[in-house]
Amino acid sequence: MNTKPISGPHIAAIRRVDQIMRQVILALVPATAFGVLLFGWPALYLLVVTVLSAMLFEAFCLKLKGVAATPSLRDGSAILTGLLVAMTLPPWAPWWIGVAGSAIAIVLGKQVYGGLGQNVFNPAMLARVALLISFPIEMTTWANVTPLFTGPGLIDSFALTFFGLDSTDAVTGATTLGLVKTGFSQNLTLPGILADYSSFLAMIGWERGSLGETSTLLVLGGGVWLLRKGVIQWHIPVSLLATVAVLSSLFHLWDGAHYLSPWVHLNSGALMLVAFFIATDYVTSPNTPLGQLIFGAGCGLLIFVIRSWGGYPEGTGFAVLLMNAVTPLIDHYIRPRIYGRYRNGKPLDISNP
């Protein structure tokens, strides 16, 4: 048998799970803190409720499995899941939305499959989509910007989050993508300057939306920091963002009155959050660089299609879940080299060793 060794089969792990989780959480801190500052105490209460409930559901599931909860909770995966769920919710949503989101993410999205590293779908996106379909009113009621220092106080905010107290500050309004979707569905042309101005506000963060939609710059900064640290690779973010940018550019040039510019697409919704923090999930994305490029491009294509012609103004959650389902197929056909060996001058096929 003619074999040609290329590389050794040994891989030295340089990071533990808890280290990776801590770095991702740190990367999210600036955008999260800015969102809390932007929407006030109700956003902070919802964030705390979502993260704590995620940890409680994690501990409950581990207890049912007879696994010690303390070591598993220390890895930070439950905290990160709760944080990501909170960042996809309206900041002034009632407390039970956060609890329901954490339950879906941890129980149905993670533990049902066997726990960390075995889930098929991204838990946070599964929770986001399930909540959006089940509770469309609560999930699409966006509060106007009411900063921490001018919005409702501690007591009023507590009553708003936990007892459903009505507040005139919580004026229902659409995000940029929602406004565009409504206008286009009624055959109205949204002035380009309005869309560009709204996307500029989204870039700096001064616009209604979820915590993950408030500041494109801060989310992008956290993603770039993860790239520099080597926590994530560039293949998925670049292919996802490039696909959205190219498609939106072509359609905007073709009919600028009915298709948003790439500037608006890139700075609106949770696109940056998904590109750097959701789609790059180790467990639910492909293993090979080529597979990751295909995965990112698929996410970008679906996001553009749903935003342009779908029934929902934002398509990131649906796009990620659909591509999560395709990940095993991508990994099946695009396999990494097995120990870097060749047989008779040809790559070794693991299906026929």
How would you portray this structure in words?
The protein is an all-alpha fold and 353 residues long. It has 2 domains: 13-173, no CATH class; 185-336, no CATH class. It is 61% helix and 2% strand. The chain is built from 16 helices and 3 strands. The chain has helices spanning 17-39, 41-65, 69-74, 77-87, 95-108, 123-134, 136-139, 154-163, 176-185, 192-204, 216-229, 235-254, 262-267, 271-278, 289-309, 316-333; strands at 3-5, 341-343, 346-347. A 3-stranded antiparallel β-sheet has the order 1-2-3, with no helix packed on it. Helix 2 (41-65) crosses helix 8 (154-163). The longest helix is centred in the N-terminal third of the chain and has 25 residues, at 41-65. The protein is globular and about 50 Å long. 47% of the residues are buried.
Present the secondary structure layout.
Elements: E1 3-5, H1 17-39, H2 41-65, H3 69-74, H4 77-87, H5 95-108, H6 123-134, H7 136-139, H8 154-163, H9 176-185, H10 192-204, H11 216-229, H12 235-254, H13 262-267, H14 271-278, H15 289-309, H16 316-333, E2 341-343, E3 346-347
Antiparallel strand pairs: 1-2, 2-3
Helix pairs in contact: 1-2, 1-4, 1-11, 2-4, 2-5, 2-8, 4-5, 4-6, 5-6, 6-16, 11-14, 12-14, 12-15, 15-16
